[in-house]
Design goal:
By secondary structure, the protein is mainly α. The protein folds into two domains: 1-79, Rna Polymerase Sigma Factor, Chain: A; 90-157, Winged helix-like DNA-binding domain superfamily/Winged helix DNA-binding domain (Arc Repressor Mutant, subunit A, Orthogonal Bundle), CATH 1.10.10.10. The chain contains seven helices and no strands. The chain is globular.
Length: 163
């Protein structure tokens, strides 16, 4: 299975969106969760097995949607009360290096003003509030920048999610 093919990415995006939509009940928030899921997939794709990848995507999308729900309620998204934790996938040094190269390629589609925010959020997994402090912006501006990053990445990958 070619994880980088347009057909695969459209299918994966649709699965992620639907899994998130069930939890969130909102198309826009489901878009956000699906994009976070696809970025998580991109980081872990070399450690995933073709026969389980769609289940992994659905599980991660569910978890991202729960995180979004918690953020909107003012709860800690990292609390242990989630039914399913994000599934970690150990990678060896080669996979880590390849993942880093792929992430650098994704960064190339972003304007300079968004690259650091994307790196902090998706490579270092830093919370929006902390990113805002580091880059000297408000948390709301950083959230808007993350939406813009998601849209640019989606467009660069040729993804069209329902919505």
């Amino acid at each position: 299975m070619d994880f980088e093919s347009d057909e695969f990415l459209r299918r994966a995006g649709g699965i992620a969106w639907r899994a998130a939509r069930v939890v969130l009940g909102d198309n826009d928030l489901a878009d956000d969760a699906a994009q976070e899921t696809l970025l998580e997939f991109w980081r872990h794709r070399h450690g995933l097995r073709p026969e389980t990848v769609f289940g992994w995507i659905a599980r991660v999308a569910h978890n991202k949607a729960v995180d979004i729900t918690r953020r909107h309620r003012g709860e800690d998204p990292d609390s242990d009360s989630v039914a399913f934790a994000t599934i970690p996938h150990p990678r060896d040094d080669l996979e880590e290096m390849l993942s880093g190269i792929a992430f650098q390629q994704i960064l190339l589609v972003l304007p300079d003003r968004l690259r650091e925010i994307a790196r902090l959020r998706y490579q270092e997994d830093i919370e929006t509030r902390v990113i805002a402090e580091r880059v000297g912006k408000t948390a709301g501006t950083v959230r808007n920048n993350l939406v813009e990053i998601s849209e640019l990445v989606r467009a660069s990958l040729g993804l069209e999610l329902p919505g």
